[in-house]
Amino acid sequence: MLSRIDHIGIACHDLDATVEFYKKTYGFTDAHFEVNEEQGVRECMLKINTTGDGAASYIQLITPTRPDSTVAKWLEKNGEGVHHIAFGTDGTDVQAEADAIAAEGVRVLYDAPRRGSMGSRITFLHPKDCHGVLTELVQKAPEA
Ligand code: CMX
Ligand code: CO
């Protein structure tokens, strides 16, 4: 089952400056930085749920690491802004969720899940099949 918004992905030109904006303006301070070469991004996950109910959600700020990155192409065309939305599984297998969605006629972009932030497993749905929204599915890494 998809049970929550895991994160909203926002593409930006200057990651550090954008992180500072989110920290200063909204007071979000729980920041996790990572480079994902496969996805061609340097990113920062800002945790925005501190209510302690365990259902954390994040703002994912992303900037391209190379000119052929999908995000570089997107930034060139659109400028900075909301790039994708990600739904989190409720502990269920992300590939099983993707298979069920594919059966509804939605294109799933990867044959098998890839590595996302903080050890998660991710896949994407084509924006043209989702009313214009690039949609990611996320299965969090098991708690250590
Ligand atoms: N949101 C909505 N629509 C989008 C989009 C986005 N983020 N990216 C592309 N599109 C639209 C384009 O506007 C274009 O529409 P038109 O034909 O009407 O102009 C169409 O989709 C094709 O776009 P494109 O610019 O030619 O781009 P590609 O087809 O080469 O790539 C996509 C699009 C979705 C397949 C590619 O971006 C992709 O594989 N995305 C998944 C991976 C990813 O985004 N990684 C970065 C985030 C990593 C993370 O979250 O951890
Ligand atoms: Co994402």
From TrEMBL:
Keywords: Metal-binding. Transmembrane segments: none annotated. The keyword Metal-binding applies. The keyword Metal-binding applies. Pfam families: Glyoxalase_4. CDD domains: MMCE. Residues 4-140 form the VOC domain. It comes from the Bacteria. Belongs to the methylmalonyl-CoA epimerase family. NCBIfam families: metmalonyl_epim (TIGR03081). This is Methylmalonyl-CoA epimerase. It comes from Actinocorallia libanotica.
